[in-house]
Structures are given as C-alpha cells and as structure tokens.
Amino acid sequence: MQTHTSRTGKLLGTAVAAALSAPLLPGVLAPPAAAVACDTAAANRAPTAGTMTQARDAVACLINAQRTQRGLPALTTNQALTRAAQQHAVAAVQIKWWGPGRDPHRNPQTGSTPQTRIQAAGYCPNPRSWQFSEITYTGWGSGWGTPQAAVNWWMNSPGHRAAILDPGVREMGPWAQPGSADPGGASSTTAGTYVVTFGRCQQ
C-alpha cells in the first residue's frame, strides 16, 4: 500500500490593518450542536467522475461536523472559493507536482498561490478586511483517497486542524478531484485529491 498526504501550512491574508478586522472573542463559543449526519458511503470512497459532487459534499459535511461538535458555526459554501479550490485541484492532478519537499500551494507552471487564485475567482472584491486559508490533501491505496481520510489527516495535523477550526472564517470552497496530485499515485484507481479554501469577507 502506498499513501501520500501533502504537508501544507495555514495562509492568512488581511486586506487592511488589523484595526478594521471584525472582533473575535476567544473562548466565547456556542454549545456543541447535535452530531451532523454525513453520507457515510460518499465519505468512505474515493471520488470518480460520477461521484465528485457527493465527495465534495461529504468533505463539506465532515468539516462542518468537526466545527459544530466544538460549538463553532457551520461554514456556508461559497461559489468563488469553490472555483478557486476546483482550479487548483484539477491542475494538481494534471501536473502531479505534489510530493515530499514540494509546495502544494504554488502551481509551478502558472505561479498561482491561494491568494491569487481566490482573488481571481472573485472572492471578496474591495474588502474592508478579509481572511483566507487553503488546505490540500492527496491520497491513494486502500481507503486513503477518500474524503474521510482527508479530513482525518487534516484534523491530526496542527496547522490544518487550526484552519478547519478557525473561529474567524465563515465560508468555504471544497473540491474533490479523482486522481492523485503526486506522481507516486498516478496509476491508482482509488486516488483522490482534495482542496478546501476558507474565507471571511468584510466589505
């Protein structure tokens, strides 16, 4: 069995000085919500051309389950953030540059970054303040290419966990793409590549 997961860091962008940012009150959380019921079948199978929508919905559901279990608000899906995630995931599977020692957030052909992709997709034009982050994952082999594997790995990686549980973000753009973004998984039929962008926009 071969597996690979990309290592990523949290990236935050603020358009203006912190004084204009929406205030956050640490430690003030809502009571934990009832458990969210996600589509178990979709969460535990790698995406295919015919199941990409279900896989994408499963990623969003699993992320919101992690948040609401801890008293954080569920995130809404934003079309611009989703377009940015889709663009990156599709390119990653086509080019296959992710792997040890490689930066999965910068496209080596176009030079695009999370910030440039999110802005190009039209998220939060002319903001007073804004915040964004991006997390990525690619896996293959027995059970490693699934939405559940991606979210489990993110939640066990401090930087990714912090992005998912960030109380400041309000929206996300999830994408699930069939295939591996790492050349090591190129021949796998059970590979999945996942990109989720997060944002908060104050205009």
Q: Could you explain the architecture of this structure?
A:
With 203 residues, the protein is an alpha+beta fold. It has six helices and four strands, in the order ααβααβααββ. A four-stranded mixed beta sheet has the order 1-3-4-2, sandwiched between helices. α2 (52-68) packs parallel to α5 and α3 (79-95) packs across α4 (114-120). Residues 1-32 have low confidence and may be disordered.
Strands, helices and their partners?
Layout: H1 40-43, H2 52-68, E1 76-77, H3 79-95, H4 114-120, E2 129-139, H5 147-155, H6 158-164, E3 171-178, E4 192-202
Parallel strand pairs: 1-3
Antiparallel strand pairs: 2-4, 3-4
Helix pairs in contact: 2-5, 3-4
Short characterization:
By secondary structure, the protein is of the alpha+beta class. The chain contains 6 helices and 4 strands.
Residue windows where pLDDT falls under 50 for at least 5 positions: 1-32
Give Rg in angstroms.
16 Å
Strand content: 15-25%
The tally of strands reads 4
> What can be said about the biggest beta sheet?
4 strands, mixed
The backbone outline, from C-alpha atoms, is globular
Strand order of the largest sheet: 1-3-4-2
Q: Average pLDDT value?
A: 86
Q: Span from first to last CA?
A: 48 Å
Helix content: 25-40%
What structural category arises from helix and sheet content? alpha+beta
Number of helices: 6
What features would you highlight for this structure?
203 residues, alpha+beta, 6 helices, globular, four-stranded mixed beta sheet
